[in-house]
Structures are given as structure tokens and as C-alpha cells.
């Protein structure tokens, strides 16, 4: 008997479509939600929230407090993509990795320092998108899109 | 020996100050964050989010999906108060009660129906404010204000 074990790396990741990416590009400040391990929700506005490829978001930690401690104990985050200029409204959930050294961290550090030398760019929060949900007001709200 | 037990009702509630209330009144759409019991964060934009008194926020559930199931199993929520017109940026956390009948529910129902007959106004989510945190970008971000 032969048992074949297939390990699918990153199998739970999803890719944003073109319409979602266009809407994403229209947002300047995103609401970034996290939760402590025991479920206390936290939401803060963030300016540095970049879509690096179809399935990866980079968030810069300049002044994170509860957000950082939440992510350290519970590496999950959620944002929504909406303002008065977007055509749709999407909620994104993802799994997070915190980086404070290495090539990706250095790249984020340089991007943040170009925005302003005062920003400390303490950590790179790399979010891999796992789910996208409809977020427009109406009976379809909450429906899983990706 | 006499032991005096003092039970302070609602002792963990806090009241917004005048500046916070003024900022609150300038927001049309709030980011409303919840989490499942096991800590999966969720954030959605909400239009009906009213400050009813210094320590009480009413949110109308028209089309809640994960938000409702999260609050049913973990009655905690977080919002922030910020847009380009506010003088400050505050994060509010609170404990939530879900009401689907009674005087408060009926009042919310009528308020929602005045906004548009199409809205189902399924539940009133009453949030009692427990904490307020500084949310403006900078070294003070995350500091407990109330």
C-alpha cells in the first residue's frame, strides 16, 4: 500500500480580481481590525496598507500598540475596501506574519522613510489574503466572494 | 469584623467628553469591528451608529452576518472616530447587548424605517462604552484616554 501525502503550500490563499484591485487602489486610509486571543476586537486607521501582489498586503507598523500585541498572539487581520469612490465594498480577511528584519522588512522600511523620516517603521505586517466577502449594504452582505 | 461588599453597577462604563462627542457627530460611516469567540476579527462599514448618550451607542442590524454571529457568541465591539473633518482620532471599545423587542428596539426600528422602508432593522445592537483610546498617528497612539 502506498500512501501519498500532498502538502499544499499556501493553499488557503486567494487572489483579488481586477475590480477589487482597482477599488483597493482608491483607498488612502484603511480600517485595520485585529483581536486578542481571547476575542477583544480592535480597529485602527492605517495609512500604509499596500497591495503588493494579488494575494499579499503589506502594512507598516509605526505606532502599533494593541494591534501589535494582538497580532503577536493571534496573527489574523481584517480590513474593508470602501469609500465614496469605490464601485464595490469588500471585506478582506488574512493571516499575518510580522517581520522585523530581512529583505521584505528593509524594502518596507525604505518605502516608509520615503514618506517621512519621522516614521519609525518598526515592523512589517505581511497579510496573506485568505477570504474576501461582499460588504455592500443589502441582503448579499457577508456573502463569501473568494 | 465587618466585611462590606460594594457592588458597583455599570462601574466599567465611561463617558465621552464634549470634544469626542463633537468628533463623533461628524462621522457618517463607522468601521465596526467584532471578533468570533476564537478571535477571528471582522470589520464592516455601518451607517446607523448613533451616540444616544455620553456612554451609549446604538447600531442597527440591517444586514449583519458574521457581525451578528460574532456578537452573539462574544458581545464586544470596537469602532474608531476619525475622518478628515474631526479634530482628534479616538478608538472606542464597548460591551454589547442585542435587542430584538422592547421599547429601545421599537425606537431604533422607527428611526431606521424613517431612513428607508427597505431596511429590515432586525436587531438593535446597544454598545456601552468601556474604554476610549488615542488613535492619532504618533507615539501616543494606543494610550488609554478613558
UniProtKB/TrEMBL annotation, chains A, B:
Top-rank lineage group of the source organism: Archaea
InterPro entries in UniProt: Pyridox_Oxase_N (IPR011576), Split_barrel_FMN-bd (IPR012349)
Pyridoxamine 5'-phosphate oxidase N-terminal domain ranges (all copies): 16-134
PANTHER family on file: 5'-PHOSPHATE OXIDASE PUTATIVE DOMAIN-CONTAINING PROTEIN-RELATED
Name of protein: Pyridoxamine 5'-phosphate oxidase-related FMN-binding protein
Lineage: Archaea, Methanobacteriati, Methanobacteriota, Stenosarchaea group, Methanomicrobia
Amino acid at each position: 500500500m502506498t500512501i501519498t501525502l500532498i502538502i499544499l503550500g499556501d493553499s488557503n490563499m486567494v487572489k483579488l480580481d481586477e475590480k477589487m484591485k482597482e477599488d483597493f487602489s482608491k483607498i488612502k486610509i484603511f480600517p485595520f481590525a485585529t483581536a486578542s486571543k481571547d476575542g477583544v476586537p480592535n480597529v485602527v486607521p492605517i495609512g500604509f496598507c499596500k497591495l503588493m501582489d494579488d494575494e499579499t498586503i503589506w502594512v507598516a507598523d509605526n505606532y502599533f500598540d494593541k494591534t501589535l500585541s494582538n497580532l503577536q498572539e493571534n496573527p489574523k487581520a481584517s480590513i474593508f475596501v470602501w469609500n465614496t469612490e469605490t464601485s464595490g465594498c469588500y471585506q478582506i480577511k488574512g493571516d499575518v506574519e510580522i517581520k522585523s528584519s530581512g529583505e521584505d522588512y528593509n524594502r518596507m522600511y525604505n518605502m516608509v522613510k520615503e514618506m517621512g523620516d519621522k516614521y519609525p517603521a518598526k515592523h512589517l505586517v505581511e497579510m496573506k489574503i485568505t477570504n474576501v466577502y461582499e460588504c455592500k449594504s443589502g441582503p448579499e452582505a457577508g456573502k463569501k466572494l473568494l
